Amino acid sequence: MSELRKFLFEGLPVRGMLVCLTDAWQDLLKRREGAESGAYPPPVRTLLGEMAAAGVLMQSNIKFNGALILQMQGDGPVRLAVAEIQPDLSFRATATVNGTVAADARLEALLNVHGQGRCAITLDPKDRLPGQQPYQGVVPLHGDQREPLQNLSEVLEHYMLQSEQLDTRMVLAANDERAAGLLIQRLPVGGDSNIGGAHWKSDEEAIGQSEDFNRIAHLAATLTKEELLTLDADTILRRLFWEEDVRHFEPMRPRFACRCSRQRVQRMLSGLGEEESRSILAEQGRVDIGCEFCGARYQFDAVDVEQMFTPGSDQPPTSRSVQ
Fold this sequence. Notes:
By secondary structure, the chain is of the alpha+beta class. It is built from ten helices and 16 strands. The chain has two domains: 3-256, Hsp33 domain, CATH 3.55.30; 262-322, Alpha-Beta Complex (CBS domain Like), CATH 3.90.1280. The chain has helices at residues 23-33, 42-59, 107-111, 152-164, 211-221, 225-230, 233-241, 262-272, 274-284, 302-308; strands at residues 3-9, 14-21, 66-73, 78-85, 90-97, 118-125, 135-140, 168-174, 179-186, 192-195, 198-201, 246-248, 255-256, 287-290, 297-300, 321-322. The protein is elongated, with a radius of gyration of 22 Å.
């Protein structure tokens, strides 16, 4: 089963998390295979798997009642990739692909061909106050010296250093069977900050100065992608940190879950307006909309559309969703 392990290094200012998405990740891929647009190319599946694992790690690392949305935008064949993680660690992910993706494409070839790629992390509160906007931090897909970052781990380490002043080491890997990640982070020693309703702590002067963090981060960096994708959590942690005094917490269970619904799609159609909705209906005989996250399809016939735009009608459309 998919699981997330959180752990602390006793007496040291370092914490860690290890996530292994198995059944949850396979569920997401199977649903995508059944969607009209079909399965993603292998490099895109790898990217989305790493994003899902990273998003679960980051969501579990903050005290925040809302969605964490990890988003990659680029100027390559992958125009957009999104992973959304809820407070209960349910997640979903999708990507928009335009053009051919090479079988061996890496991050730069997928998203950053002309140096315009961006990574955004959004914290969207579950119960927004009137006028409250989600918090969003954005970083380019290059380092301080303009050199392209080679993988998602480097991008997110750079984000945490630049945006939150936290030393972080992250190892990510994904294939069609498992999406997994290890996060090691220096515990903050500065004052509390509240960003987007989430509690982060930072201490800019301590960046890079913790010998304990540097030692443990070096051990974490020896973890290979193959090990991350084939070994169980206990074996990984024992092999990496057998000389450390590690306190383990009860595993948490991430799962795939999509928040799409017929009501949400109906609201979207209402937002398009009556003229546009009727135009689609006249052209196609029905309005057929698929969810990009889970592949579910929602169909609206002439009666549904008529009810939707009839003033004072409180009757829900009668057509059902289809998978």
